[in-house]
Amino acid sequence: MDKEDSTVLDDNVESRAAFEQIAEFARELGFEHCCHGLRMPVPVTRPRTVFYTNYPPEWERLYRERGYLEIDPTVLHGMRSSSAIVWSDEFFSTVPEFWQTAQSYGLRYGWAQSRRDPEGIYSMLVLARSGPALDIEELRDKEERLSWLLGKSHFLAKQACSDPVINEKMPLLSGREVEVLRWSADGKSAAIIAALMNISERTVAFHINSVVQKLGVNNKTSAVARASMLGLLW
User: Fold this and answer.
1) What is the pLDDT of residues 176-195, one digit of tens each?
2) Which UniProt keywords apply (predicted)?
3) Domain that holds residue 214
4) Are residues 90 and 193 in the same domain?
5) Helices 57-65 and 96-104: crossing angle, nearest 10°?
């Protein structure tokens, strides 16, 4: 995630209220700090990211200035996997300076998990505290509530965000339009798609043009990319 494209999720009343709810739920679960980030699926080349955190201000400053976002193991794990992670010395073994600095600001024990919804919107929730350590018994006891909070935080941030990708009604594509896009995504030409679907090339072109207009893009390639990002091809 490019720092220049990130926007702190505190630019309106709805955003602040959403995060305050998340932070309160986190405190009820025993975590004094939390961070939630939400990444839009478009624009594809520079996806917009919004986030909010109640980490210590000095840690937030260092995180930005030192470019920790690019090396943070929690973020890197969340981008690769939706499985939950619990912080440990081993988990941060490749970035000892980062880990030592984080601990000096009370970020010693943590839990994090990411999720991606059918619309292609990605988010990650990180909960942290200075102590006590997280043990297996506590994690088992709070597993359902942590999972619930992950979904709740995603929903609240998604609703509060003003980005049109989130707030506008999802484009409705016909079954034929989706099928044409799927074949296009596989690299099939209009002639091959026409033969596979038993329709004319002119009809294939008609469906492509219709999708381009519905998705607000300029060409077939962009239509395939946007539809895929929005989960419309699944």
Assistant:
1) 999 999 999 999 999 999 99
2) DNA-binding, Transcription, Transcription regulation
3) 169-230
4) no
5) 160
